């Protein structure tokens, strides 16, 4: 097993590391910020990378926000960015449905378990959908629901796909609708299958925890459109036309970010220790992925290099 190179505090090694790449794909949660807290030195580090002619692309599995909403968050947190630099799993899923899946009418509607970010991106690709943030689905299940779902009278006959993302209002009624659509042949998609996501210096159930009851009840696994899915890498490459050898994936999770970079045959992967995965995770015999490089925090690659 290869041993990742530790870069923090080693200015010469950091300089050499930055020179190896033209493009940096950066995860957000656990790398740039935790919740609404931006990690110290991140803004300066991004500016430093850009000043050296590097392209930065923000690649996030969080499906609760659209690209426009992410841009608002970046701007509000003082991070210079533009909407074309942001590539989220909600956008990736919408692109997949509209341009690859190409559901034919009349079964071209999507039943959404998720937040407004998914809805915005589906609308941007002119994909019809139901569910999502509709208040009609944010309630307790009734005896009439069981009857109508079982006999199909409460189902929309035009639904041909179920898309599951992170949903802060997940409930039995939504899962029951999704199950019935899947049992009737709908395509099963997930924005991503992260088990948890970091927020306010803690961890909470992720999008994968929303789709897991459906995996268990149907025996099917969804096509996942976030990291580490190579469908997402292909979509990013299609949009930005980068050289994979000169591209580095930066992230905090071995099972999504680092695996994404390795399976995508990128030139390098950089793990940061401000999120989910820690050093002992890749040192374990059953490590899901091992980064090529690691730092304590993202700002280490900016601060140390500028101190030369």
Automatic annotation (TrEMBL):
<feature type="binding site">
    <location>
        <position position="227"/>
    </location>
    <ligand>
        <name>substrate</name>
    </ligand>
</feature>
<feature type="binding site">
    <location>
        <position position="27"/>
    </location>
    <ligand>
        <name>Mg(2+)</name>
    </ligand>
</feature>
<feature type="binding site">
    <location>
        <position position="29"/>
    </location>
    <ligand>
        <name>Mg(2+)</name>
    </ligand>
</feature>
<dbReference type="GO" id="GO:0005737">
    <property type="term" value="C:cytoplasm"/>
</dbReference>
<dbReference type="InterPro" id="IPR023214">
    <property type="entry name" value="HAD_sf"/>
</dbReference>
<dbReference type="InterPro" id="IPR006349">
    <property type="entry name" value="PGP_euk"/>
</dbReference>
<feature type="active site" description="Proton donor">
    <location>
        <position position="27"/>
    </location>
</feature>
<dbReference type="Pfam" id="PF13344">
    <property type="entry name" value="Hydrolase_6"/>
</dbReference>
<keyword id="KW-0460">Magnesium</keyword>
<dbReference type="InterPro" id="IPR006357">
    <property type="entry name" value="HAD-SF_hydro_IIA"/>
</dbReference>
<dbReference type="InterPro" id="IPR036412">
    <property type="entry name" value="HAD-like_sf"/>
</dbReference>
<dbReference type="GO" id="GO:0046872">
    <property type="term" value="F:metal ion binding"/>
</dbReference>
<keyword id="KW-0479">Metal-binding</keyword>
<keyword id="KW-0378">Hydrolase</keyword>
<dbReference type="GO" id="GO:0004035">
    <property type="term" value="F:alkaline phosphatase activity"/>
</dbReference>
<dbReference type="GO" id="GO:0008967">
    <property type="term" value="F:phosphoglycolate phosphatase activity"/>
</dbReference>
<feature type="binding site">
    <location>
        <position position="252"/>
    </location>
    <ligand>
        <name>Mg(2+)</name>
    </ligand>
</feature>
<dbReference type="Pfam" id="PF13242">
    <property type="entry name" value="Hydrolase_like"/>
</dbReference>
<protein>
    <recommendedName>
        <fullName>4-nitrophenylphosphatase</fullName>
        <ecNumber>3.1.3.41</ecNumber>
    </recommendedName>
</protein>
<feature type="active site" description="Proton donor">
    <location>
        <position position="29"/>
    </location>
</feature>
């Amino acid at each position: 097993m290869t041993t990742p190179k530790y870069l923090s505090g080693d200015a010469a090694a950091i300089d050499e590391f930055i020179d190896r790449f033209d493009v940096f794909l950066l995860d957000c949660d656990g790398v740039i910020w935790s919740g609404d807290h931006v990690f110290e030195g991140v803004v300066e580090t991004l500016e430093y990378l850009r000043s050296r002619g590097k392209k930065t692309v923000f690649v996030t599995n969080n499906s609760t926000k659209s690209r426009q909403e992410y841009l608002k968050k970046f701007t509000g947190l003082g991070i210079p960015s533009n909407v074309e630099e942001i590539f989220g799993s909600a956008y990736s899923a919408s692109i997949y449905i509209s341009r690859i899946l190409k559901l034919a009418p009349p079964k071209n509607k999507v039943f959404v378990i998720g937040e407004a970010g998914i809805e915005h991106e589906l609308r941007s690709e002119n994909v019809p959908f139901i569910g999502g943030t509709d208040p009609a689905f944010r309630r307790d299940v009734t005896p009439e629901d069981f009857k109508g779902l079982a006999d199909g009278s409460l189902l929309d006959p035009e639904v041909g796909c179920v898309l599951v993302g992170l949903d802060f209002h997940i409930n039995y009624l939504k899962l029951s609708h999704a199950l019935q659509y899947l049992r009737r042949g709908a395509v099963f998609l997930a924005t991503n299958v992260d088990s948890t996501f970091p927020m306010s210096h803690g961890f909470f159930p992720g999008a994968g925890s929303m789709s897991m009851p459906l995996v268990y009840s149907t025996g099917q696994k969804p096509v996942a459109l976030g990291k580490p899915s190579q469908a997402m890498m292909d979509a990013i490459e299609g949009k930005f036309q980068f050289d994979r050898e000169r591209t580095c994936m930066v992230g905090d999770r071995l099972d999504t970010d680092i695996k994404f970079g390795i399976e995508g045959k990128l030139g390098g992967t950089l793990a940061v220790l401000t999120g989910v995965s820690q050093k002992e995770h890749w040192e374990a015999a059953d490590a899901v992925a091992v980064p090529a490089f690691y730092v304590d925090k993202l700002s280490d690659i900016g601060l140390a290099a500028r101190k030369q």
